[in-house]
Amino acid sequence: MTISTEAAKPLPFSSAVGSLIEATDAIRNFRAIALLALTFIGAVLVGGVLTMLAGGMSSALLAFLGGLMAFLVMFYGSNAVGILLMRDAQGQPGMSLVDAVLVSLYTSHRLIAVVFLEFLIVLAAMIAIAIILFVCKIPVLGPVLYAVVFPLSAIVLGVLVFALFYVMLPLAGPAAWSGASVFQIIARLNQIVRTKLVSVILLEVLLFLITAFVALLIFGVLGTGVSLTTGMSAGILSLGEMNMYALAAGLGRGGSGSGYIVAAGLGGGLLMAAAAVVPGLIFTKGVCIIYLDATRNVDFGASEASLNDGLATVKKKAEEARERARALAEQASAPAAPAAAAAPAAAPVDSLQCPSCKAPVASDDVFCGECAHKLK
User: Fold this and answer.
1) Which of 68, 265, 345, 365 could form a disulfide with 251 if both were Cys (CB 3.0 to 4.6 A apart)?
2) Nearest C-alpha neighbor of 274 from the set 105, 37, 110
3) Closest by alpha carbon to 174, among 301, 274, 275, 283?
4) Range from 2-11, 27-36, 77-86 that averages highest in pLDDT
């Protein structure tokens, strides 16, 4: 009896494109829609209110705090949405909004660590190339070496940047949402870069086009409506010139402008945030589909083992260097050995004295020559 392996084969590129079109089905996930809308609206409210307070109090610290709080709301909320859509793409049962937020609060820091490590990898490559370029300053031999270093450096940096912005950063989120640890994410993305870089980039370009088309359609409709409503409001409510600059200026003055201007600024911000929900959902589910297609039936055991071995080697060498430095420090701080005690000087032969008058006498004298004291 033979076992069919057809199901174990990865999807062809055409099927992957077809599955990517299904990312538009994300608008049917009402939990994800509600959570992403709450995330956008919450970020706008937090950032807007604190910005208004900062404008009224002229506090740069409060403005920075407002931006930071808005970023944190967006970061953890969007990751919670990603967790919901990843489970949807995997065909797993959904979870409640509270559970998704809790999981996001517990695991989203992995993305920060992954992004930090990815930029460290690029920085290390640039430092290594910079060192090689300094070597190329050697007279006579330098230009010959540079003829080889220049094209190789261009290829390495080009591939690294493309891998960073088209694979590492977009797919780090889906990898974390699927439950992978930091080093598992690095190992898996590294294998995707080595084996499926071109196909992943093509799928992401297609996803960008789909998302951009949907966003253009939605914001085109809203832009038309906002433009007409703004013109009517300016005439009926006697608001004078009313545009996006005026709305932003009204918020920036801490609400010191017209109440209508402040209300329009907050309402327009909430409207734009809600409009960004649909494109955001499509893009998030799209990257989940791309990640699942790139990792379908791929054994990452060898890649993860290689990464763990490399980390173990680096850790061992660092420990050896630490022990060597500790030994050298102890040797340098140890007190010097005390010098050997000098041997007592031998007494001169003629250093004997008469016990009575203290006059010097010889060892064979019987009487002192000064006071005639009997010595023997």
Assistant:
1) 265
2) 37
3) 283
4) 77-86
